[in-house]
Fold this protein.
Amino acid sequence: MKRLYSIVSLLTVFLSVVLFGSCRNQATEDAQMRAFVDKLMAQMTLEEKLGQLNLPVGGDIVTGEARSSHSAEAIRQGKVGGLFNLKGAAAIRDVQRIAVEQSRLGIPLLFGMDVIHGYETVFPLPLALSCSWDLQAIERSAQIAAREATADGICWTFSPMVDICHDGRWGRISEGSGEDPYLGSRIAEAMVKGYQGASLSDKETMMACVKHFALYGAVEAGREYNNVYPDDYHAFNEYMQPYKAAVDAGAGSVMAAFNTVHGVPSMGNKWLLTDLLREQWGFDGFVVSDYTSVRHMAENGVNFSLEDGAIQCLEAGLDMDMVSEGFVALANAVREGRCSRQAVDDACRRILEAKYKLGLFDDPYLYCDPTRREAVILCDEHRAEARRIAGECMVLLKNENELLPLQRKGTIALIGPLADARNNMAGTWSVAAVPGRYKTVKEGLEDALRGTGARLLYAKGSNLMYDARMEAIATIFGHEMRDSRSDAAMRQEALSIARKADIIIAAMGEASEMSGECASRVNLEMPDAQHDLLVELSNLGKPIVLVHFAGRPTVLNWETEHLPVILESWFSGSETGDAIADVLFGEVNPSGKLTVQLPRHVGQYPFSYRQMRTSRPNEGGEFAKYSTCYADVSSKPLYPFGYGLSYTHFAYSDFYLTDSVMPLDGSVEVHVTITNTGSRAGAEVVQLYIGDRQARGVRPYRELRGFERIELAAGESREVVFTLNAERMGYYEPADLKWTLEAGDIEVMVGANSRDTQMRLLHVL
Ligand code: BGC
């Protein structure tokens, strides 16, 4: 006993030394940074300070021309704090040199970019990545993105996008992690860790920028750039947690959203940017506006001039102005006392501190090492990781008679406008992608079948849709894929190869730009030309595997009713071709689970599995007079949140709580055993939900509060244990929005998705 006691004491001393030591080191480093920035700011003119707050787009700067461009002149005059979306270490080095060698104080620039789901090695869309529920893989994807982007001069990414969304009409649902704030928070932390690593001044890490603060995912009617109206109770319980989780994980910057919060535009909202973000949450990085949004203050009708809008934003706590050039022009306003000098100093300090943390004052060319590109960008190791991770993100929605995995034999007809559409593989928001170096689905399948004796036939079969004008919108940004042949000729070709085949693989769905920014839509069904082709193919009576492309939840009623297999492949990034082949032929056993439920009708939106209790409940979702329901469609999803099949099967057993009673300050364990009852190895995402029956604020019938992704060999069993306590089960109560758990009954549920769960009751006293 005595011995144990001395070991414990020794450990305590050791831990205190380490912890205290690291706090002291941090404090010393912070003091050094402050002293450095104080000294620098003492030498800066007002114009130079305002210059640090200016973030123009790098568009007019091209290597070689940089010296004569408008931006280059502004950089020389100290009127630029950073640039974004300029690609290439050589180009960036060239521009950095202007700042460092030709501006009066030689302050280095920040170089930012929308590195959203990878760089040249592109990972699945964020929505798809979230379907892996694999936090390590997600962190790794961000780490690889940082390794590649920093080898090309970038030190700051406008990611992660952590906006929770309950509306598939909004195109930007593709950029987030789905509909759940608990899962969204864990993913936000993983992304920040992946980008920023252990030290921001490491040349392989970059600064994260959490966006879009706040509530952008709640845009009314799913229409892009629209207003948002959640009240504070729902804002905090449904939307705010991932932003906070990212801030707690140490994110260096935050981007203010386009939308208003409490009726005030986010970029000019003092409550949001100062009271909540800095004072309550303790955020110590800087806040950047979204693209031209300081100018939007006038469009919103809140301010009538760019100057008035810029003053409101700066004083609200916005530090950097993306593209509007409103902050950089504030010198007179400051001199005339219309804008506070303190606000300018605070913002300038935060930006200089970010540059300091990134190591740019020690070495402005830290991220411009020309030798790294060759070794790092799109290297075999990164591509292999992207392929592996892409395989984890696809969601097997239906697999009748275990048609998948396919055998490598016979004749396979590959049909559809997405089958050989190289420019579409990476998915929306892949600014640095090099599509010419990625395989199509057709090439992936050809490689997988080479030397096997199986025959692959291919026909495009249809355009994306009949209407050429709509297709032009769907393939904006030069991803055109329209075929000049007639619809009938394309269809005939497809039907004729399908007749020769034993099985049909249909690669269909959305083109990449049908989701993403400003891609809101109200028709989420399979585009008409592809739907008609699918109908004709299914009339042939041959088995059809639908490999579905989408950047959002879509409506798949007809497909579910008529096709034996549906694989939701989303947009899987640079390795799409191989990753799809891996899943279809069983090299990879699918394990992705939906992080947005799929609706039966677009009219169900806004729609989430986190259905709040109502006074007129309706369990089954079918019509029942005077209950919450629709008369013409079930109110349940077609595929629930958390759902996804595997090529094996998992059984849940021995589910129990260590106690059915828990004091408010206590904890209980939840135990459940999972067995792989099939004949091949696979991964399962074990999900834990709670349903708080007796809280002061109305709570959802079920909400995710834990999950674990486990890999099990055929026949293997594993016990998974979750710990529940007040912290884990709390919510922001309606009176003071404090994270709280109240006494009462709580349903504790575990299962393979949000619908198919077992329940035990927990009494909290
Ligand atoms: C988007 C941001 C993006 C920015 C810079 C804006 O339109 O809303 O998410 O980071 O552009 O490209």
Summary: The chain has three domains: 23-373, 387-595, 650-764. The pocket of beta-D-glucopyranose is lined by residues 114, 158, 211, 290-291, 517 (CB under 6 Å).
